[in-house]
Specification:
The chain is 28% helix and 27% strand. By secondary structure, it is of the alpha+beta class. α1 (11-22) runs parallel beside α7 (300-319) and α12 crosses α13. The longest helix has 28 residues, at 329-356. The protein is globular, with a radius of gyration of 24 Å.
Length: 535
């Protein structure tokens, strides 16, 4: 029997598997596809997903395999009319090291995550289709299409918009499909030298469009998107190599033969749908199995990655007996509103983009906003967010980064390096926080990392082990801290609690909720979560 069976080996399932495996959870990943997909599909991780991938230890490989986001060149009637860089003027800041996403083919990102998962001794099982789920109180019995089966303590459906897991659960997938809003897509080969590979080309004409984005790591590979060809009655035709060539020639005014090959052709229809529940007993949903939306803004894969990062630590805490089963209810509580917001944002950005491309110079840059970075998504409404906060950072928000120094060696480091890994972090600003740090370390061991953060004026000659020097005040500024303050940061790098030194007991009680099953059960049972859902 496995602890967690993950159904679906896309970025969502693989992120969850990597997170669980590093926490010592026995995980099994199955996918009905007979072989690993090679489609480029999603354009790449946004800034928040890059932070998740850094925590998982793979961001270096992602940065090396991908490329920077590209400026967009817009054409009308075959002629270039405007270039636009939606990230022009942006740059990394002390609290946010990634100001833009990374362009990488989805198959390559999946390959990097599979390699990371393999380091724990786990491989994806392809050609393995789930056809039945039976709840047995303490386990789920899983039936496969080949007649075999297994038991798992939990099952997570990461198996896409047509999720078999969701259908087996009877979970509704409410929303709408815009049948007429269609696009044909595929990986294509273009004759070398015909198009500049340093830009994302977008031909928008009154009678249709073609978009070509170079695929990093290839010499002639491009990701192709366009409106579909239509027959005499106006019905959309299925994608084909010859159809792609005709559309390419019509809009680019280049010879059709320069599009030398096409593979993995598909039709995309705008679907805006969301599951009404993310959990049914011991079975949960994540990624496209739980929500689908317009492609504007590139949030599909990213929302799934961030679902997985929210869920992984919670499953691990419950499975290890460090938290009550109620902790899993906070997954839906936190992520379902994010999905609803994403559906609204992407639908609005799609409308804005369709309006923009009616005029020469309009393009996909219209879909990019500060919110599509993912950096402003938090859970202030969550029952895990204790009231309080300083400055702009509140409980439930994404935990900001900050450059600092190792207090023992003086070596430069960052808060994100301290937060990375399968632990809760407690930051102590000011000498009055040291009793809380000592008691937290004694009570929770290696599941909690306690870090004294010294200011330029209070650094002793013999600092506490693992302490940091905040010489330039970036950490205090990022968290809006004044005086003695304790900050508890969850394993998914969201702020759980910000408390002054007088809140010593509150910080320790909160840690018991996140890490300590018997105490957590008592706290939830005592109504520590109030009727507002804010704790």
């Amino acid at each position: 029997m496995t602890d967690v069976l993950i159904v679906g080996a896309g970025p969502t399932g693989l992120t969850l598997a990597c997170d669980l495996a590093r926490r010592g959870i026995a995980v099994r990943v199955v996918d009905k596809s007979p072989e690993y997909p090679r489609s480029s599909r999603a354009k790449g991780p946004n800034p928040r997903s890059l932070e998740v991938l850094e925590d998982l230890g793979v961001v270096g490989a992602v940065l090396a395999a991908g490329s920077a986001t590209l400026p967009m060149r817009k054409y009308r009637d075959g002629l270039p009319v405007a270039d636009a860089d939606p990230y022009a003027g942006s740059s990394p800041t002390p609290d946010a090291p990634y100001d833009r996403g990374r362009l990488i083919a989805q198959w390559r990102l999946e390959e990097i995550l599979r390699d990371r998962l393999a380091e724990s001794g786990t491989a994806v099982e392809t050609g393995t289709e789930v056809v039945g789920l039976t709840d047995r109180d303490t386990t789920v019995a899983v039936a496969f299409a080949d007649g075999s089966g297994t038991d798992a303590r939990y099952v997570v459906g990461c198996d896409g918009a047509h999720s078999r897991v969701r259908k087996l659960l009877g979970v509704t997938f409410d929303g709408e499909t815009e049948a007429e809003q269609q696009m044909v897509c595929g990986d294509v080969e273009i004759t070398p030298g015909v198009l500049d590979r340093d830009v994302w080309h977008q031909w928008f004409d009154e009678d249709g469009a073609v978009m070509l984005c170079p695929i990093p790591g290839t010499r002639t590979g491009w990701w192709y998107q366009s409106g579909p060809e239509r027959d005499a009655e106006g019905r959309a035709l299925a994608p084909s190599l010859e159809g792609f060539r005709r559309l390419f020639a019509r809009h680019t005014r280049l010879p059709a033969g320069h599009l030398t090959g096409a593979a993995l052709l598909s039709t995309y229809r705008v679907n805006v749908r969301m599951a009404d529940r993310y959990r049914v007993g011991r079975v949960l949903l994540a990624g496209d199995a739980a929500h689908v939306h317009a492609i504007a803004g590139g949030l599909g894969m990213n929302t799934g990655i961030q679902d997985a990062f929210n869920l992984g630590w919670k499953l691990a805490q419950v499975l290890r007996g460090r938290a009550g089963d109620e902790l899993l209810d906070t997954y839906e509580e936190e992520r379902l509103p994010v999905a609803a917001w994403t559906l609204d944002l992407t639908s609005e950005r799609l409308r804005a983009t369709l309006e923009a491309i009616r005029k020469p110079g309009g393009g996909l840059d219209t879909a990019v906003t500060p919110s599509t970075t993912g950096l402003d998504r938090g859970y202030r409404w969550s029952s895990l967010a204790r009231p309080g906060g300083h400055g702009g950072v509140q409980s439930g928000d994404r935990a900001p980064d900050a450059p600092c120094a190792d207090a023992g060696t003086g070596a430069p480091t960052r808060l994100f390096r301290v937060l990375a890994g399968p632990h809760i972090t407690v930051l102590g600003f000011g000498p009055g926080t040291e009793p809380t740090l000592r008691e937290a370390a004694a009570a929770h061991g290696d599941t909690v990392r306690t870090v004294r953060v010294y200011d330029a004026g209070d650094a002793p000659e013999a600092p506490l082990p693992g302490a940091l020097h905040d010489w330039d005040g970036h950490a205090r500024t990022a968290y809006g801290v004044a005086g003695d303050t304790v900050v508890v940061i969850r394993p998914d790098n969201h702020v759980g609690l910000i408390s002054d030194a007088d809140g010593h007991g509150a910080a320790l009680r909160y840690l018991d909720v996140l890490d300590g099953a018997r105490e957590a059960d008592r706290m939830w049972g005592a109504g520590m979560v109030d009727g507002t859902g804010k704790g």
